[in-house]
Structure formats: C-alpha cells, structure tokens
TrEMBL record:
One of its GO terms (molecular function) is 2-oxoglutarate-dependent dioxygenase activity. Keywords: Antibiotic biosynthesis, Dioxygenase, Oxidoreductase. Its cofactor is Fe(2+). Gene3D superfamilies: Clavaminate synthase-like. One of its GO terms (biological process) is antibiotic biosynthetic process. The keyword Protein biosynthesis does not apply. This is TauD/TfdA family dioxygenase. Residues 41-321 form the TauD/TfdA-like domain.
Length: 324
C-alpha cells in the first residue's frame, strides 16, 4: 500500500504537508526502475492525489541511472514534450531528456515555474540526479498555493488585470543570452517563424540577424486539474532587477534595458515597480524549502503547484530534466 512506501522529509513544523513527499522502495514497488514504473501505472490515481496534495514526489532508492529508464518513468506521469522556445541554457542529451541547466556552478537560479513565459508550459517536470555536487546544488521548491495566499490582493488584482509582456532578444549564433537557433532548436527562419506564429508571438528580425520576440501572458493561471488560480509567472525572474547588481551593470554598459536578453513589462507596456517584484521574491524566499540530492533520485514536480530553482555548487553536478 502507498502508506508503507511514503515518508515525509523533514520540513518546518508550520507546513501543512511535506514538500517534497519522499517515496522509498517496499515489496510492492521493488527497487528497480522497471518495477517502480509498473507500480506507478497501477497506483496512478493514488499518486495523482498525492501530487495534488504535496506538489512534488521524490522517489529515492530505485537505482535510476540510464536516461531511457528515467524518460520511461516520467512518461508514466505525463506526455513528454520538447524544450523548444525555452529560454534557459540546456542541452538535449538523449530522447526528450535535457540537462537541467547549463548555467555555471557559481550562479544561483531563482525560483520559477518552468516555461511560464510560453503557451506550452509543462504541467509536470521530472528531475533525475545522475551525480550530486560536492556542496550545494540543491533544487529548492516553493508551494505556489502558499505564495499566492500571502501576496497582497491589490497586487494580484493589478497583475491579473494588466497581464504581462515577455520580451526576448535572441542573438544570431553568438552574443548575450541564448541564440534563437538554440532556443527554437532550428536554424531555419521559416521554421522558427511558423513556431512563433503557432504560439501567438509577435517578432522582429533585426539587421544583424538577431530575433526579438514578444509574448503576452497571464500573471495568474488556473491549475489544469483543480481550477485553482495561482500566481504563476516569471516577472521577478525576467525583470532586470532579478539580475545581480554586477551583471545588470555590465549589461547596461553595452545595452539599453529594452535590449537585454530578457525583460518583462505589464501587458500594456508600462513598467513594473521593482518594489513589487522584491515583495514577491521575499515571500517566495520565505516559502522555499530544499532537500539534498542523492545519486539516482527522481523528483516529479507539479509545475503549477511548485516552483523550483538551483543553488550554486562546487564539484561536478549532473541533474537531468524531462518535461510534459
């Protein structure tokens, strides 16, 4: 039974539920990826209930190593998709499995809901720890329900009314930020334009071959299964105030802020107050919890219920992701 294999990780006593919920082997699950995947198929309804309750499930002790086993396992929870249109630096490794991020080890990646700036936001994210770092490297988690409940009603109403514009400046082959060829996994302009048109983007090709895209998105989204409206956006992540002071200053030496690799405004083009975004960041920080990765861990996250980030680290770290 599920209760015999589910155990909560240590979390603050004030939490109503653990984040993530830890699931370890027993006689029903076995201790191999194949037996666990078969068990997940039989226990789909119960696991859905636990995912909606906790937001994230951590499977530990099942010996995950092969990326194909990981992809098959995540496919038991969702239909997998590519990362085309995603702004983070990632490498496709095998099938529909990518590196979680190619950002350098010393960078902290702030909390975010994966691809909330696109119409193809995945509902489920799977992470595999192939090799934990020597220090740091955690994937912190924050419950969007708790964050949404704590945000001021006036702020939520204003963002919901105005919506957001995500502005993305993508260089041609090299430059600041991710290239358009990498972002859309294609070097063919016609193919890229077809993808942009299909997904509702506005775009402009610059004289130097770079691409500027603009996409209008909501600031609060309903959960696809429960209908509960949640604060799900990357305004605090895309805004220049989300950069370190040093990075922002260096970019400002050579670029106007409207030409930064990423930026965000209200849906009417007006500026978002940095004080509002700092308030959001503060609440998210207070709601963030984390665990220490172990080799072979697989984390299944509900991307609407839980945001994630990455701590800086030392040593080698291998964490992979599959989206669906």
């Amino acid at each position: 039974m599920m209760d015999t294999v589910a155990a909560s990780l240590p979390v603050p006593a004030t939490r109503e539920h653990s984040l993530p919920l830890l699931i370890t082997p027993d006689g029903d699950t076995g201790d191999k990826p194949g037996s666990l995947t078969a068990w997940v198929g039989k226990e789909a309804a119960r696991l859905r209930q636990l995912r909606l309750q906790h937001g994230a499930l951590l499977f530990r002790g099942f010996g995950f190593e092969a990326l194909q086993d990981f992809q098959t396992f995540v496919s038991a929870f969702t239909s997998l998709q590519t990362y085309q249109g995603g702004a983070s630096r990632r490498t496709k490794v095998e099938g529909l499995v990518y590196t979680s991020t190619d950002m350098a080890a010393h960078y902290e990646i702030s909390q975010h809901h994966e691809s909330a700036y696109t119409p193809a936001m995945p509902a489920i994210i799977g992470f595999l720890c192939g090799l934990p770092s020597e220090t740091g490297g955690e994937t912190p988690l924050a419950d969007a329900r708790r964050v949404t409940a704590r945000l001021p009603e006036e702020l939520k109403a204003r963002f919901e009314e105005k919506g957001l514009l995500y502005l993305n400046n993508l260089p041609n082959h090299f430059g600041f930020g991710k290239t358009w060829q990498a972002q859309f996994e294609s070097g063919d302009r016609d193919e890229v334009e077809a993808k942009l048109r299909e997904n509702g983007y506005e775009w402009e090709w610059k004289a130097d071959g770079s691409l500027r895209t603009v996409l209008r998105c909501a600031a609060l989204l309903p959960h696809p299964e429960t209908g509960r409206k949640l604060w799900i956006n990357q305004a605090d992540h895309w805004h220049p105030s989300g950069l370190s002071n040093g990075t922002r200053a260096k970019l400002a030496e050579v670029l106007a802020e409207e030409d930064f690799p990423m930026n965000v405004t209200y849906g009417d083009g007006s500026v978002i107050a940095e004080s509002d975004l700092e308030l959001v960041r503060g609440i998210v920080r207070e709601e963030t919890t984390q665990f220490t990765w172990q080799k072979g861990d697989v984390l299944i996250c509900d991307n609407f219920l839980v945001s994630h980030g990455r701590r800086s680290f030392t040593g080698e770290r291998k964490v992979y992701v599959a989206l669906g």
